[in-house]
Write a structure and sequence with these properties.
The chain is mainly beta. The protein contains one helix and ten strands; from the N terminus they run αββββββββββ. The protein has one domain (21-155): Lipocalin, CATH 2.40.128.20. The protein has a ten-stranded antiparallel beta barrel.
Length: 156
């Protein structure tokens, strides 16, 4: 009986791929500080990408401070049937489901939804050692994506 049980138990010890390898998102892991342009009314902010739950999810925590207001959000990135997906929650009561894909030089988060619904696209692009740019775009129902926010950041 033990001879049959041992091979079965060993199967559970064989890893099914490295949980700590986030593929196109690996360059994002760490703490980042946004670089403001120094213009009046410009926002400041920080965000981090941290592996959690024994490296099975990647959690982004972010805030942006603007004169008179603050925006906080949380995004949980996970693997689903061999692909990367994410759930986003923010202080404005938005909840967005994203599909995540590699793009030239970075990674893109694209919301679910038909062209008849508002869609969101967030793109991170590596910009040298410990630097990146991010572009957040919104597509109103029936329209193409348009830039809503663009920023650069450096890893602390």
């Amino acid at each position: 009986m033990m001879r049959l049980l041992l091979p079965v138990l060993l199967l559970f010890l064989i890893p099914c791929g490295r949980a700590d390898d986030w593929g196109p998102l690996q360059f994002l892991v760490g703490h980042w500080t946004a670089e403001g342009g120094g213009k009046p009314g410009a926002g400041t902010g920080e965000f981090s990408f941290t592996p959690e739950v024994q490296d099975h999810v990647l959690v982004r925590r972010s805030f942006a401070q603007y004169p008179g207001s603050r925006h906080d959000d949380l995004m949980i990135i996970y693997r689903q049937s061999g692909s990367l997906e994410a759930m986003f929650f923010d202080s404005e009561n938005h909840v967005i489901h994203y599909r995540v894909a590699a793009v030239a030089g970075g990674a893109q988060f694209l919301s679910d939804g038909a062209p008849s619904e508002t869609r969101f696209r967030l793109t991170y692009t590596a910009a040298g050692a410990n630097r990146l740019t991010l572009l957040f775009e919104i597509a109103p129902p029936g329209k193409d994506f348009a830039r809503y926010l663009e920023a650069s950041a450096h890893r602390d």
